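Action item from last week, closing it out:
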Amino acid sequence: MLTFAKKEFYMKTDVLSRRLFQSGNASGNTLSTVGLNLPALRDVMIQAHVQACIVPLTDPHCGEYTPEHWKTLQWLSGFTGSAGTLVVTADEAGLWTDSRYFLQAGEQLQNTGIDLLKAGLPDTPTPEQWLVSKLNAGNTVGIEGEVFVAAQAIALIHQFEKNQLHVNTNFAPYTKLWHDRPEIPLNKAFILPEKFTGESARSKIQRLREAMQAQKANCTVLATLDSIAWLFNLRGSDIRYNPVAVSYALVGDTEAVLFMDFRKLTVEVADYLRSEGVALAEYNKIDSYVSRYAQTESTRFLIAPNKVNYHLFQLIYNRHCEPDGNYTSNQLIDVEFHPVDQMKAIKNETEIAGFRNAMQRDGAALVKFDTWLRNQLAENKTVTELDVSHTLKEFRSEQDYFVCESFETIAAYGAHGAIVHYEPTPESNAQILPEGVLLVDSGAHYLDGTTDVTRTIAVGPVTDEMKRDFTLLLKGHIALARAKFPKGTVGMQLDILARQFIWQAGENYLHGTGHGVGHCLNVHEGPQSIRMNYNPTPIEPGMITSNESGIYKAGRYGIRIENLLLCVPAETTEFGEFYQFETLSRCPIDSSLIDFELLTDDELLWLRKHQFIL
């Protein structure tokens, strides 16, 4: 439940977002004005004896980003945001999304017959609660199990069954209804050479088998694309900002199989995989392989229910839900975190060296950008937020080993900086004036590493309040970067270090302080995190995690500072092992925003040591 302060924050954010839409839709897409495909869907629901259906904004691979082929929610509703759930009944429909998209969804859902429900607010029911209030006992809810994360579907089914509602987990009429549906991406995959990965696919597969054996399992199924990419040293371009290729994988005691559309495989990729002991099968053969293994009584699957879709989960075990929502199977060993997630989170020496080199080149591009920006403003030339995005990409693309940007650049001037996930569009594109601050959060994938860095830049005179906020935030940033902590420490125990000074000033931010970062892989990577919520994963040597606290003042400005941290051993004492962080990012911090009177000698020394100020 949200506190009053959080509710006030969401309300302010919605007001601020409305200003962005005065000249158009911030998504840059045409607004929806008709009911789109809901009537056809309802006809199919009647034929299938389904009284309601739920459509998530996810795909079979449980990822953060979704290829066009699986954007069913957008096709049905016209809503183009990156987070949402659509629920449809015979005579009503609702779409849930978070505060980033309140106004956008309100605009795009006009005249569609779909109501906007603002997720996270105290008075907003969950989709399950909403449906329970609308349906009668004995009614059926339809879901497409293939695009639901198994853990989510299991919880949903339990909730509905408690309320005497049935669930059809194979309700997927969209193939027949969606006549111009985009194909599953067919971009060519490529191999990331071992000079960058530091380990062969064969070695990684063997380590996975050993981890499975330790759990008394002899088979596992992988659906998440970054896990598959890491395991097989495989990369692709099927999802924007994510160098991954659409695929599945199955690893048993004696065989490892990659399931991928053969049109995506080059001779080089196929030859490398076969030489590493990997068999190749067509993408759509995953079901038959899983079913064959499941029919063998000696098979023990190791599965992370939050990293596999419900359709595959159903194939693995004979479903039996107990009254408390638990499931039983003598063939299933379920874990909270899959071994591959843990293995790829801990970078080897080659990957770490690559990160350091990538940070140097990325820092050079950022310094070049900073020089360009200040020269443009000094010469009174027009610079907009989109100009910032385009120029940053241009300078990064000049660097060795550049692959692509690691996420959509957040170039947020003035009041736009107070919108945490703001992305400039042609309609919202603001001109950068010679006053106040510009927040730039950006990054890139290089063959040897991935970057994610945020800098707040004074583009003209700033207020004392801005300098105070920036400096208090910087003090917390330094405190986390300088932390020394015992083995077994989790992110929640470190989070206070970043917030302590702004809390003393009565300020806070609602997002996490740190997320894991992949090696030429997804910029958001688990299992570790640094945030106020409890995550049982300890921070271990080899993990790379962001350090990104912020202050956001709606309608005025936003400030964020972000570097990437590498966990390294510190010392061993009579009290045990201790770890610390190495700051990897290499980009100056704008010293004109610092109130040096608020810094200690140690903090100033840290800034100079890392060349963040000259």
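Closing note: Confidence is low (pLDDT under 50) at residues 1-35, 319-325.
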